[in-house]
């Protein structure tokens, strides 16, 4: 057997020609800019400013440390983008500088939801001027400038443009769960780089859960020593990351989930729990029984000391206390807690949790922090200073706003649900459910957060699950509500994804490595073709499929395939194009070519699947995909020849589609929906 | 114009199916292992040892620091390759360990050409045992183990095998010129990682030349302060790199080129020169006049102090003094030097250089160093302790060996000549020219060095110029002379290239970025298809094409395209296959498909070339490639239909081929040779 091993991407480029043609050429206009997120106001003008060896920058600002560092990074990236030595082009003669950066505001020592991120960027043929009232506005504007950079017949350039930009929402976050699987410092930094590139401003760091406690505590060292399997951040690393984020205009909001989701704390400190223990780090996924005991004063003493330590480590004004999914079992079974509830007139467990949260509020206030927590914390009796993070949905968020609470949306932004970027893009924190809110109530909806829960992600695949889809959420939260062009979104996502890789993100490289791993030393190309037709399911499907442990290797095909396949999306567009006409057209031929290619792929794919223990489970899936392609081809033939398929074919096709809708080896078939459309159309149009 | 930006490689995988088929399947045997370099002795046995979660390692060695660190890296890579948590699998019960590492030798504080790199690796169904007499042998064996790792129906595994391995040559180097373009520390480290993966053992660090002096000198700070444009290695960075290399079994041999190629020294220290100066850093490429003055005692005092400082910084026993390409002009024009030559009976300049080298020898000896230098230093009167590095060729090397001098080969290993891996692979230090040498004389030929001269490389393209081609040289220098299967080499190079990328090398990522840069925000795919058909020329062609300066951006297509295109090579193989038969066969159809694809690519390519100032120069080249493809198609049609092409066609084709043989925009057409074969065959077979 010949095994050519790693597949040099250079040689692949011939394929696309067969499937797709470039649209007609023309000069780029406003609609072809690759800015993401799209600015609030953008006016294109004629002309452009050259970026050549004479380009230089002058900084006119009061407080320039953060800006100077940002300009150094900016020039390095501009040099990379042009190949022209620009890395140290700070103007020697400030009067002549091509790019002037103007900022009269001082740097916030700690950024907040009140930090002004607005900026104005005006580019003429001679000069560019970026002005902002705060340094963070300058950071945002520099990203826009980089995204405007392009090449034309004369030089690299930025187009003449006038931009006035300002985020629609002030809270544009990404949650990274480092408890269920740990992520090392460099991965957090890479994500911060990517967030900054798309103007996100909050990293919500989910630092503790049943499966791991991930920060060094000097006050309670048992937390990280026995709660983390040795995988935790040193306090020095936390400082480093907080500073790194600050320099990119990103706040770090730490989450320590309590009173539930806290098993990892209890390994060393079982006395905090509502049941005696002992406790071990949880190794599976779900909602578990261990829970803190709100009736014990020592719990509050512990949390006072702990929060005091963490409050100093994390400078942000908000402190996320989790508060979600309290399993009532331990509380119900504890006679002590039952008595405590009676004594304090707390009829229900949720009232006990309100009591716990009120005590926490006091502790947080003592240490200068405000509370943020999940939906469950939203109960009467809590002050309006809290922020509620809604995983339940826009209605819940709007209800909170009516009651006077501020909130952020995460429902619809769960990256582990493996939905397409277009799905997240359609999810507006001020959607229909907020239509009846007053303007005042609307201002209470602060924004949203993409959530990367980590049951099924680890350092090898996390970047491919977060990016580039999260950029769609970043745009939803920054750009005007009317920014809704899906085609434009996908065009820009693809371009921005290249920029993220240039910034250092490794999802493309890791994808290749992880696919190659499955094929061993064999030629990986047939497997790559196959992987393009698939998509991973949401975590629910996976949890139901088998029992997972936190140490279960994530090295199967389902762990590697990316959430959204471009091949499948383009194929789907072709099918839509074909079905928008009643007869055969150029789209038919391309659909046919694709389906034939994918069918032909099955022969070289089989020996790879035969040989790899990790791929054995997808053999039925491969056969199914080949059958589906054949079925799609037959459907297309019926449609193109305007024949009615026989009843028996229809029945077989329906059975095949039904079978294909189930996950196989925990994997969905990404090209199923367009094939289904073809099949269904044969009966709609022909009968 | 639609501009879809960065091209996600996932979607490319369909193309290969059209061009190539997988050969028949079978179980992997000795010939399908992806080991590179191939070991001296390898015996395959039946069976295999599983690598699963129970895999662990025990180290049984006298001196284990270097080995412990190597095993940690090894386990990290094994974890990455399998996705199974193995990173800390050092055996808890040593008796049961699956993989035993045995080494009774002590670590050389400084590795040398006498360091024993041999190892034995024996793998049975139950256990693996790696034994070596020195820690460096262990390092070599660990790389082999990793390369043996594969997947089968049961698990990851290594095959049962017995390997006894030992390098054919003890000097297997890579020269990196950091003077003409500087390379930052992380790029040096990435190259060291790659070298270790293919068992190379010398980094020849070309640290000074006319265009830059790249090491901090505390004794003569003017050297780096005025000789480097601020681009130099701190002494702390040198220590770091020396240690990094040592831990990977790689020696660092520094080169300070003298008495010529020394302009950068003279900027601060003009008194060393044979003419008064003043001097500036040289900004162009070539052989320049500035030269040290061998007649001045202060030159030797300076070199004594300087070499004393550097001897402490670089622990290797060899110190490379360059010695090449002395321009005689300053020596000839200096009356002082003319008189000095007369006084000392030095008739010719080369005798003066011998004198200079003898003085240097004394200084080196004083500081505990031995001399290595280029061909030119090989003159009677120098002691046999020196090593000569031959850029002139194998005959020169053999002549030296006959005179008693040891030497290494670099002729034929110049990476900037942009020759294919197969060319370098064929270049044997003990080639025909050494056939007459006695066995004793043969032992004086120590090995060779790949040379990456840096006129046209910078941090953005250096990795693509060095890798994977240098791995072919690594194999030539390690494996038995009879290891000569080109198909096997290319299969393994492709696989190993993936391993290098997994180790962190960035040539694939940078290729994408740099190609995208040329296309600006436009869809880059047609440009990628085009780039696959091209190859860069040797530096000589480039220097003749235009005047280059060290600050000239290397951002044109010629700077990005890779030295050896897989598409072109596979196309060439197809043509050979077609021409080995007298009539049309399956190869014809594939050749036709390729040529049609490449012709069709011209339409979508043109708008990109029209728009980019950096691509304008390749418009005629693109037209020429399309014409060539058309001509190739016509030739194939004549061949397949067994028709004699008309005289007029033959003449036009010949003119086209002649025109295409010239570089255009400094670029060669990689698919020209096979197309030429097709055209020429029409007249050979048909007349």
Protein model, in words:
2 copies of one chain form a homodimer. Mean pLDDT of chain A is 93; it is low at 1-30. Chain A is an alpha/beta fold and 687 residues long. In chain A, the strands form 3 sheets. In chain A, strands 8, 9, 10, 11, 12, 13, 14, 15 and 16 form a 9-stranded mixed sheet that branches. In chain A, strands 1, 2, 3, 4, 5, 6 and 7 form a 7-stranded mixed sheet that branches. In chain A, strands 17-18 form a two-stranded antiparallel sheet. Chain A is built from 27 helices and 18 strands. The longest helix of chain A has 23 residues, at 619-641. In chain A, helix 23 runs antiparallel to helix 25, helix 24 runs antiparallel to helix 25 (619-641) and helix 25 (619-641) runs parallel beside helix 27. Helix content of chain A is 43%, strand content 14%.
The chain pair forming the largest interface, with residue counts per chain, is: A-B, 97 and 97 residues
Number of H- or I-type helical stretches of chain A: 27
Largest sheet features of chain A: 9 strands, mixed
Number of distinct beta strands of chain A: 18
Portion in beta strands of chain A: 5-15%
Give Rg of chain A in angstroms.
27 Å
Summed over residues and divided by their number, the pLDDT of chain A gives a mean of 93
Ends distance of chain A: 50 Å
Assembly form of the protein: homodimer
């Amino acid at each position: 057997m010949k095994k050519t091993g790693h597949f040099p991407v250079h040689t692949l480029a011939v394929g696309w020609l067969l499937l797709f043609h470039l649209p007609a050429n023309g000069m780029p206009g406003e609609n072809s800019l690759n800015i993401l997120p799209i600015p609030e106001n953008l006016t294109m003008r004629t002309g452009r400013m050259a970026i050549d060896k004479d380009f230089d920058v002058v900084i006119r600002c009061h407080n320039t440390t953060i800006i100077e560092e940002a300009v150094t990074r900016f020039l390095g990236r501009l040099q990379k983008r042009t190949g022209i030595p620009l890395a140290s082009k700070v103007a020697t003669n400030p009067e002549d500088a091509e790019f002037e950066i103007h900022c009269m505001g001082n740097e916030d020592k700690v950024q907040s939801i009140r930090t002004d991120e607005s900026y104005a960027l005006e580019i003429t043929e001679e000069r560019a001027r970026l002005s902002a009232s705060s340094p963070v506005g300058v950071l945002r504007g520099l990203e826009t400038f980089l995204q405007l950079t392009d090449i034309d017949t004369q030089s690299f350039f930025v187009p003449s443009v006038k931009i006035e930009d300002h985020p629609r929402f002030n809270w544009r976050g990404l949650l990274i769960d480092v408890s269920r699987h740990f992520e090392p410092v460099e991965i957090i930094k890479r994500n911060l780089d990517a967030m900054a590139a798309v103007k996100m401003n909050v990293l919500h760091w989910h630092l503790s859960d049943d499966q791991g406690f991930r920060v060094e505590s000097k006050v309670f060292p048992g937390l990280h020593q026995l709660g983390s399997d040795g995988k935790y951040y040193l306090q020095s690393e936390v400082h480093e990351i907080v500073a790194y984020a600050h320099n990119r205009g990103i706040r770090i909001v730490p989450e320590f989930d309590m009173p539930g989701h806290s098993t990892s704390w209890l390994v060393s400190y079982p006395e905090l729990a509502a049941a005696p223990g002992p406790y071990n780090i949880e190794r599976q996924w779900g909602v578990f029984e261990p829970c803190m005991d709100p009736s014990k004063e020592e719990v509050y003493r512990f949390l006072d000391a702990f929060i005091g330590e963490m409050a100093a480590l994390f400078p942000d004004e908000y402190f996320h206390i989790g508060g979600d999914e309290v399993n009532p079992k331990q509380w119900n079974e504890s006679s002590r807690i039952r008595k405590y509830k009676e004594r304090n007139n707390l009829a229900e467990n949720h009232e006990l949790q309100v009591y716990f949260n009120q005590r926490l509020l006091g502790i947080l206030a003592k240490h200068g922090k405000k509370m943020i927590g999940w939906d469950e914390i939203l109960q009467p009796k809590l002050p309006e200073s809290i922020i509620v993070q809604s995983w339940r949905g826009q209605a819940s968020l709007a209800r909170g706003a009516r009651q006077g609470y501020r909130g952020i949306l995460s429902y619809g932004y769960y990256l582990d649900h493996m939905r397409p970027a277009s799905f997240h893009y359609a999810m507006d924190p001020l959607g229909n459910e907020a239509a009846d809110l007053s303007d005042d109530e609307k201002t209470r909806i602060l924004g949203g957060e993409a959530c990367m829960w980590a049951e099924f992600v680890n350092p090898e695949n996390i970047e491919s699950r977060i990016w580039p889809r999260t950029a769609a959420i970043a745009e939803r939260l920054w750009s005007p509500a009317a920014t809704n062009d899906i085609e434009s979104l996908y065009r820009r996502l693809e371009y921005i994804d290249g920029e993220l890789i240039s910034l250092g993100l490794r999802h493309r490289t890791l994808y290749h490595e992880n696919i190659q791993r499955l094929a061993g030393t064999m030629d990986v190309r047939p497997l790559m073709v196959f992987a393009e037709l698939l998509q991973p399911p949401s975590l629910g499907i996976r949890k139901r499929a088998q029992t997972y442990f936190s140490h279960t290797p994530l090295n199967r095909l389902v762990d590697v395939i990316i959430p959204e396949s471009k091949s499948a999306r383009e194929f789907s567009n072709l099918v839509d194009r074909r079905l928008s006409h009643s007869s055969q057209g150029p789209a038919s031929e391309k659909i046919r070519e694709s389906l034939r290619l994918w069918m032909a792929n099955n022969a070289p794919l089989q020996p790879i699947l035969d040989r790899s223990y990790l791929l054995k489970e997808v053999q039925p899936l491969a056969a199914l995909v080949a059958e589906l392609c054949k079925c799609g081809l037959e459907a297309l033939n019926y449609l193109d020849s305007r024949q009615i398929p026989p009843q028996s074919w229809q029945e077989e096709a329906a059975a095949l589609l039904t079978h294909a809708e189930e996950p196989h080896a925990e994997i969905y078939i990404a090209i199923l929906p367009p094939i289904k459309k073809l099949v269904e159309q044969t009966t709609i149009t022909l009968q």
